[in-house]
Structures are given as structure tokens and as C-alpha cells.
Amino acid sequence: MSAWTMPENAAAALHRELAALGIDSDLRSGNGLATVSVWGGLLVWTNGQTFWWIKAAKIPPEYADAPANQPQEAALRVAARYTELIRERQRPSTAS
Fold first, then answer.
1. Which end of the chain is more exposed for a tag (fewer CB within 10 A), N or C?
2. How far apart are the first and last CA of the chain?
3. Comparing C-alpha atoms, which of 33, 35, 39, 66 is closest to residue 52?
4. pTM of the shown model
């Protein structure tokens, strides 16, 4: 079994890549999956083969994914989504 089939190892690699980009995250694992919690509304799951996360909060949600053996590429894409979420939360409300 290669290291990339272990969800914990894939999640740890993504966690390190996000840290290198200056993004804090938390790791959790169990039941054959691992998660990397980045921001409210941004949780990355992995089964050791694929990373996936919600890229658009719609009903039903749209998911993005990336191969777990490419954590640097996944981190760049997750970082882009993180930036989008921060911008969305900083927009002034249009409600009166």
C-alpha cells in the first residue's frame, strides 16, 4: 500500500502545502477518510486517492476535486477558494 492510499498521509501533505501558503488548517481522520478544515464553509475530504471540497455553495452544491498525489496543486486550488470565501464575507450587506 503506497503512502498516497492512506487518507491521513494525503491530508497531512495538503495541510503542509496550505501552511506553506500561509493558510492555517486542522486535520481529522477516521473511518477511512481524513478531513482538512480550512475555513467556515471550506472542508476538504480525502480518501487517500482524491481530495474534494465544495467549490460553490448551491443546492445541490458543486464540488471540486484533485488527485491526492498532487497536494501542491490541490493546495493552490483550495487557497483560491479560501480567498473567494474571505472576499464574500467582507462584502457589505445589501439588506436594509
1. C
2. 57
3. 66
4. 0.86
Whose CA is closest to 24, among 91, 88, 79, 76?
A: 79
30 φ/ψ sector (left φ>0, alpha ψ -120 to 50, else beta): left
To which residue does cell 445541490 refer?
60
pLDDT tens-digit series, residues 15-61: 999 999 999 999 999 999 999 999 888 999 999 999 999 987 778 88
Indicate the domain borders of the chain: 3-90
Cell numbers describing residue 34: 481524513
- Can you give the C-alpha Rg of the chain in angstroms? 14
Q: CA 47 to CA 44: how far, in whole Å?
A: 10
Contacts of 92 by beta carbon, 8 Å cutoff, 6+ apart: none
